[in-house]
Amino acid sequence: MQPSARDFELPDSLPLLAVRDTVVFPHMIVPLFIGRSQSLAAVQKALEGDRMIMLASQKEPDLEHPSPDDIYGTGCVGMIMRSLKLPDGRTKVLVQGLGKARIRQYLATRPFFSVSVEDLDEPDIPQLSLESEALMRTVRDQLNELQGMGRTFPNEVVLAAENMEDPGGLADVVASNLGLKVGVAQQILEEDDPVHRLHRVKELLAKETELVSVQHRIQNQAREEMSRSQREYFLREQLRAIQSELGETDAKAEDLLELRAQIDKAKLPAEVGKEAHKQLRRLETMPVEAAEYSMLRTYLEWLAELPWQKSTRDSIDLSAARRILDEDHYDLEKVKERILEFLAVCKLKKKLKGPVLCFVGPPGVGKTSLGKSVARALGRKFVRVSLGGLRDEAEIRGHRRTYVGALPGRIIQSMKQAGSNNPVFMLDELDKVGGADFRGDPSAALLELLDPEQNHAFSDHYINLPFDLSKVLFIATANVLDSVPSALKDRLEVIRLAGYSTEQKLAIARRYLIPRQLEANGLQEKDLSLSRNAVLKIIGEYTAEAGLRNLERELGSVCRKVALRRAEDDLRSVRVTAGTVAGYLGPPRYLDEDKLGQHEVGVATGLAWTEVGGQILHIEASIMPGSGQLHLTGQLGDVMKESAQAALSYARAHAGQWGIDADFHKTLDIHIHVPAGAIPKDGPSAGVTMVTALVSILSQRPVNREVAMTGEMTLRGQVLSVGGIKEKLLAAVRAGMRTVVLPRRNEKDLVDVPSGLRRRLNLLFADRVDDVLTAALEEKR
Questions:
Q1: Annotated catalytic residue, options 100, 471, 505, 728
Q2: Cβ atoms of 56 and 72 closer than 8 Å
Q3: Helix (H, G, I), strand (E, B), or coil: what is residue 176?
Q4: 525 with 553: CB under 8 angstroms?
Q5: At what angle do helices 182-190 and 167-175 cross, to 10 degrees?
Q6: Catalytic, out of 176, 501, 643, 685
Q7: How far is CA 503 from CA 263, 508, 528, 533, in A?
Q8: Helix (H), strand (E) at residue 564
């Protein structure tokens, strides 16, 4: 016979075992796994004595080393019935709760908790009231009802509940087998009044019965839905079998079954699935010969094939992403840093709206190929849509299904091509999008597409259902942003890519372009080698560009000529030097004509920025007898003409300072010309160059041929900041300039200029036009 609550006497002290995740009740037999050293010591102490131990629950089960304040004051005195040491060092014990007890005092805390306790066992009740008997019968009925609903209880528990004579004992037996949370179970254990305790257990049983009832109702609904689907499936299969036996196989039915299977397999969102099944039911009632049949079938195929909920997993390995970006592209540190920032945020925050990056720079600097590298670094699919010359809004949003031959727009088509809803999506040549006309405004259609707050429900006219584009990483490219509407520009995170310096082009050619051209032309590295000076000669005398396209084209031309030799059985390896480049590419196309041969009067070298990179401009001024007229030629824009007027006013106001005849405006006509007259020119940055050329011709002081300049001027003689500093400095280096005069306010922009490029130039910063003239003008001959 197992010991009962009255078969023991409490000793003066008991070892205490802090129990996690459970509350031990009287009459309860429970296995416990002991692993903590303090708990093992308490068990060992109990085994050495009368095997009795105080069992109290922890308030926080995650605490590894609880203090007395972390342990409930009311627990259960238990008897260790059996113990077993496990191979992993833990001990498994089987304990039975004997009776409730309250901790009076902690006698020791090391090496185990030792406590003195007081007995809380209820006295025997000689006569139960009618209310108590009714309450006990109700609890037994609830227990049986719960068991009948599928909740299993051990037979011993059911038997003990039927034979239990006192309310407190019945409450303890039932509560110990309901799987209650520690806090709720502890409240029941601490309730001294047995009838109140049983009332509480009755309420918990009622709640559990309701939960199980709701659970059964949900399961039955799911089972009925499954039964209905299975019934439809079996009926359709039977119908197919009957038709097959009769030789009446219906091609339309097979087609629709296949289409239904595609739709079911696609795991469409609820709204999309509802629309798809609605249209499928329409299709089933429609004759194949109907004009709308093929249109509706194509529409359903589009719905089934789009990646509504299919995503690729991002590769969040920052070091691997950095390595991939460095492998594919030289320099471009700002772009690489932005991509790594995006990856880092993805790593810290799983749900992130995709940014809209815009790479702006001259042709051939690697904007498009950079998008492919970003996709490779992220482990995503890559799709590209060229927007150049796009004039029809329907190209973006698609045509409505009522039109014959209607299709989704290029955005949805590209998403289907990608096969995932989170690709890297490149919108190439954003600045070449056509303007608004009778076909709509394509740039306005891009507003929703490129707004992270709206593109989670992008609406294509053909699909006519919201498609989530919020996970897409959009990358736009452009040569200039002037033609991009301001509303669209506001949605872009612009990253500028300047042109490459000669050193950068050399490094890129040796690391990327030459190996690529060798492979493209069937050559091996041992077949052809180009010296460093040969590559520099090709860069300087056969190309004049900010990017690399012409350089790769010229290197490809050299490789093809070597390939021709090898095809004619000349197996000797070839080494191309600076002296032999002309034999492969002909005479140089770009000689050093940009740099003036000597210091000249009336000719100043300016720096300009264009969509193909930086360039130098020689602004020429000439004077002749006349009546003070100013002639401007060279296809100058309004802003540039106004700069010339401001330069003339400055020269008149400061004539005495620079040794100019004060009445020159009455006796001389002035002609200012900017060469390359077929090319339109505009912008304020030529202001200081114009005033330098003008003061030079009027004072007959030559301009230093190795000084280039840029900056906007004011009538008061101040020099204002301009843009495109890096591109202009690259142009100055390509032209062989040694000194460049920049506005003082542009000094901050040098942070984006490579240090190697800065070292090759003597950079002077001007606050006023006087500073520019002092740096540029030589003494009169």
A1: 728
A2: yes
A3: coil
A4: no
A5: 170
A6: 685
A7: 56, 9, 22, 12
A8: helix 549-567
Q: For residues 715 and 642, what is the distance between their CA atoms, to the nearest angstrom?
A: 11
* Phi, psi (rounded to 5 degrees) for 559: -60, -40
At residue 290, φ and ψ (nearest 5 deg) are -65, 145
Amino acid (1-letter code) at residue 402:
T
Q: Name the residue type at position 476.
A: A
Instruction: List pLDDT tens digits, range 314-370.
Output: 777 888 888 888 888 887 787 788 878 877 887 787 666 667 888 888 888 888 888
Mean pLDDT of 14-37: 88
Helix (H, G, I), strand (E, B) or coil at 731: helix
CB 401 within 8 A of CB 444: no
Active site (annotated) includes residue 685: yes
Which residues are CB-neighbours of 771 under 8 A, at least 6 positions away? 719, 741, 764, 765
Known catalytic residue: 649?
Answer: no
Which stretches within 663-715 are classed as H helix? Answer: 664-667, 687-699
SS3 252: helix
Paired residues of 79 in beta bridges: 52, 96
Contact 719, 690 (CB under 8 A): no
Backbone angles phi, psi at 241, to 5 degrees: -65, -40
Say if residues 744 and 719 touch (Cβ distance below 8 Å): yes
Query: Are 732 and 607 contacting, i.e. CB atoms less than 8 angstroms apart?
Result: yes
Q: Which residues pair with 113 in a beta bridge?
A: 16
The pLDDT tens digits for 492-520 are: 888 888 777 777 888 889 988 999 999 99
